[in-house]
C-alpha cells in the first residue's frame, strides 16, 4: 500500500471533491489529472474528506458498500466493490423530501442495511462472522450523486469521491438476521407509480452479509475496524435509477414495508 500523491495533493483533492459535494457542482474525474494515483491515495482522499467533516462537528452515522452487485458493476463499468461513509446530514426521513437542487444528478438505489452488535475487524472476516455480529437488518434507499461529470468514473476516482454518497432513507421495520431469507429477499422499485427495477438480495455478492464482511476486510487493510453499533448499507441490488425534480419514489421490500419519498 503505497502513495504516489503527496500529503498536500491528497488534502487539496479532498477539499476539491468536498466542495463539489457541498456546492453541488460537477468536476472532471481526478485520475484524468493524476493518472498515477494509487488505491491508497484514493482512500486517503476519502478519509481526509471524512476528517474535514468531523473537524467541523459533522457526525459519521454509518458506512456504505457500493458496486456490490453485477447490475451496479455493469452499469458503472467498474468491477470491484468500494466503500464510503455516511454523514449525519445525509439522512432523510421515510416519506420525506430530498432537495434536488442540493444535488447534481442523483440516482436512487434499493438496499439492505445491517446494524452490528459486535466489532468486526479484517482481515479474514467471513459471512458467518458478519451474521454473528449482526443485531438486525432493515431496508434502505440510497441516493447517490457522483460529483464527476456525466456520472462517469473509474474505481480510484469514485473511492476518493466517498463512493458517490449523498443521502439515504431507512425504513422502520427491522428483522433479526435469522428471521429473513436474505438471498431471496425481493425488492420492487417504483418511480411515479411505475415499476422501474426489481431484484433479490442474492444480487449483492451472493448474500448481503458478504458485503458486510468485505467492508470489514477492506477497512482492516487500513487497520480500521467496524465498531459495534455500525449502520451499514450493503449496496444497490439493482442498477441505480436516475431521478428528476418532482419525482416520487416507492421501494417495496418483501415483508419489511415500503420506503417512499419525493425529490423537490
Ligand atoms: C458508486 C456508488 C455505488 C452502490 O450501492 O452500488 C453504490 C456509484 O455507482 O456512483 O452506492
Ligand atoms: Mg449504494
Structural notes for this entry:
The mean pLDDT is 98. The chain has helices at 7-23, 30-33, 39-55, 70-76, 127-132, 155-160, 208-220, and strands spanning 60-66, 82-87, 96-98, 107-116, 134-144, 165-170, 186-191, 194-200, 231-233, 241-242, 248-253, 257-263. The longest helix is centred in the first third of the chain and has 17 residues, at 7-23. Helix content is 27%, strand content 28%. The protein has 264 residues and is α+β, with helices and mostly antiparallel strands. It contains seven helices and twelve strands. It has a single domain, classed as Alpha-Beta Complex (Fumarylacetoacetate hydrolase, domain 2), CATH 3.90.850. The strands form two sheets. Strands 1, 2, 4, 5, 6, 9 and 10 form a seven-stranded mixed beta sheet that branches. Strands 3-12-11-7-8 form a five-stranded mixed beta sheet, with no helix packed on it. Bound molecules: 2-oxoadipic acid and magnesium ion (MG). 2-oxoadipic acid (OOG) is lined by residues 64, 66-68, 72, 76, 109, 142, 144, 146, 158, 163-164, 235-236. 2-oxoadipic acid binds at residues 64, 66-68, 72, 76, 109, 142, 144, 146, 158, 163-164, 235-236.
